Amino acid sequence: MKKMGLLLLASIFLLMTPPAQASTPVVRITDVPHTDFAGNFRDNKLALALAPEGKLGKALLRGSQTTTWVIDAALLDEIIDMSDGYQYREIEDPVGANLALLWLQQLKERTTGDPIVALPYGNPDAALARSLSKSELAFYAEIGRSKLESFFGRAVISQNGWGSGKSQLNSEFKALYKRNRSHLVRLSMAVSAEEIQLLRARLGRTLSPDLDSKQRAYFSYQGRDATDNLVKKLRIVSGRYQLTSDNVKVPLTIVNDFETDTVLSLSLLPMNYRIQVESINDIVIPAKSRIQISVPFMVIASGSTVVEAQLKTSEGVSVGELSKLSLSMTVIDSRVAWFTTAAGVLLFLAAATQSVRRIRRSRREK
Q1: pTM for this model (two decimals)
Q2: Quick one: which of 272, 274, 256 has its CA closest to 264?
Q3: How many whole angstroms separate alpha carbon 38 and alpha carbon 160?
Q4: DSSP secondary structure string for all residues of 70-137
């Protein structure tokens, strides 16, 4: 019975251990991000790391006859970008570009026939990523796998358990990550644009265990700014409007700066009873456009109010930031308007009568 228990424990341990890791040496190809969220190189350290005496140059030399290579595709993307022509602070660096090109060639040669493991894109702390969003960890894993398979031209291993280290991301930046991720996921439901998916993938880098405190702050705030700029590409223009009749059509402007058309609904919610308005469905918003739609408003009472305007998908998912429309209503009651108009007519007739009398009196005196 005791032997059976030991055998069962050994079997469980083998199942939990990645098979390649249990039988072959492991070389990890990871590093801190060297580009910002716009893809610009923020330092020149990657070129040094790729040199034969650098961290990534030495990593290639650690490969033995049979090695398991654990690779972060986000780092590989940076190296590929560098190999195409490298600029740092708007100055060309042909040495860095050549180092990147040579390193990529050596990576393909060294890994021939060896198992390759794809880390989730950006090398996030898997436990932290899973606690924040299981679906997003799966998204990072899929991006990492597909990019490595495209580069190496063959299948790679994609499974949990190969990550290393724990992220020290604090609660403020965790909340910021969740907020950014939510914006991008909802935006991707409305617009099919590659730039949205790319930024969404790059957010995983903020969860990397390789970042120090300054780097965690830098990439967290950078991710926030990049997300906000992308969200603003699909928006309702806020404005102030003066309404002077019971029923009036207000022109609202919707902007789509993406390269893709979209169809959305416009939700309109007044903040008080003074006005009534209905939401509008199935608005076609062409790519790279600025359209204007006429929205019917019914004024109930004079005064002022704010109407919250929100774009939504056909499933009712809110997209982009909430816009606020400030409305001032100065509608006069119809009875008051009739009385005022009648009084004006009477005054006009009285003035005309008086003028006629003056003319007759003037003629008599002559």
Answers
A1: 0.80
A2: 256
A3: 29
A4: EE-HHHHHHHHHHHT--EETTEE-HHHHHHHHHHHHHHHHHTTTS-EEEPPTT---HHHHHHH-HHHH
Residue range 199-210, pLDDT digits in tens = 999 999 999 999
Phi, psi of 18 (to 5 degrees): -55, 135
- Give, in order, the Cα–Cα distances in Å from 148 to each of 68, 206, 285: 14, 21, 36
Please give the C-alpha separations between residue 125 and each of 30, 118, 161, 258, 320, in angstroms, as whole numbers.
13, 14, 11, 32, 28
Per-residue pLDDT tens digits for 146-200: 999 999 999 999 987 898 899 999 999 999 999 999 999 999 999 999 999 999 9
Sequence letter at residue 104: L
Locate all alpha helices (DSSP H) within the chain, ordered by sequence.
2-16, 19-23, 45-50, 55-61, 73-83, 94-110, 126-132, 134-152, 171-190, 194-202, 213-231, 334-365
β-bridge mates for residue 29, sequence order: 71
The residue length of the chain stands at 366
Q: Which residues pair with 256 in a beta bridge?
A: 234, 289
Closest CA to 265 of 347, 325, 190: 190
Residue with tokens 């903020």: 206
CA 143-54-153 angle, to 5 degrees, is 35
- Residues 6+ positions from 47 with CB-CB distance below 8 Å: 82, 86, 93, 95, 96, 99, 100
Task: Give the span between the Cα atoms of 98 and 102, in whole angstroms.
Answer: 6
Q: What percent of the chain has pLDDT over 70?
A: 84
Angle at which helices 73-83 and 134-152 pack, to 10 degrees?
Answer: 40
Nearest alpha-carbon partner for 76 in 177, 159, 146: 146
Q: Choose among 188, 20, 16: nearest CA to 118.
A: 20
The SS3 of residue 191 is: coil
The residues, ordered by sequence, that sit 6+ positions from 54 with a Cβ below 8 Å of its Cβ are: 48
Domains identified in the chain and CATH numbers: 18-231 (no CATH), 234-329 (2.60.40.10)
